[in-house]
């Protein structure tokens, strides 16, 4: 399901920019390594649901809102 | 975030029963080991987003619908 990671990463990147975070500021706020943030956003890693919640908490959005619809994959 | 895994596991178990799957049948359909299904449903493991999609596909529901709201955790 490489498409899933790609679509999820795209959604996270879009929301991060919407909220005005640079990758550096986002790394600091989430406590996730900056290079790992890059890998998430490029869909190179398959994150855990827990990590999704940590990201959503910083982005002040519901975790579910970051998930691509199954039907679009 | 132990509460997250617990709440997510509860939602998965509820939907599995709703759809009429025994744990055995669900294990067979998802290709996930039966004992691991038990651990997921008891909130003992932190699954990946990809695994969530595999589970939702078998349960014929949107992955997002299985996620507990952040505000309820």
From TrEMBL, chains A, B:
CDD domains: HTH_XRE. Coiled coil: none annotated. InterPro entries: Cro/C1-type_HTH (IPR001387), Lambda_DNA-bd_dom_sf (IPR010982), TransReg_Diox_bact_type (IPR050807). PROSITE patterns: HTH_CROC1. It holds the Pfam family HTH_3. One of its GO terms (cellular component) is cytosol. The keyword Transcription regulation applies. It comes from the Bacteria. Residues 12-66 form the HTH cro/C1-type domain. GO terms for molecular function: DNA binding; DNA-binding transcription factor activity. PANTHER family: HTH-TYPE TRANSCRIPTIONAL REGULATOR, HTH-TYPE TRANSCRIPTIONAL REGULATOR SUTR. This is Helix-turn-helix transcriptional regulator. It comes from Vreelandella sedimenti.
């Amino acid at each position: 399901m490489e498409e899933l990671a790609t679509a999820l990463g795209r959604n996270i990147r879009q929301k991060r920019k919407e909220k005005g975070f640079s990758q550096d500021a986002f790394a600091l706020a989430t406590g996730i390594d900056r290079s790992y943030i890059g890998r998430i956003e490029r869909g190179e890693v398959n994150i855990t649901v827990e990590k999704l919640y940590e990201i959503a908490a910083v982005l002040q959005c519901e975790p579910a809102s970051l998930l691509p619809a199954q039907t679009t994959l």
